[in-house]
Amino acid sequence: MTEEGLFVMREVEVAGHRGLVEIEGHLDVGSAPELKSRLIEIVDQGVSLLVVDLTPTAFLDSSGVAVLASVQQRLERGGGALGVVMGDAHLAERFVRAGVDRLFVVAGSTDAAFERLEAE
Question: Is the pLDDT of residue 72 over 60?
Answer without folding.
Answer: yes
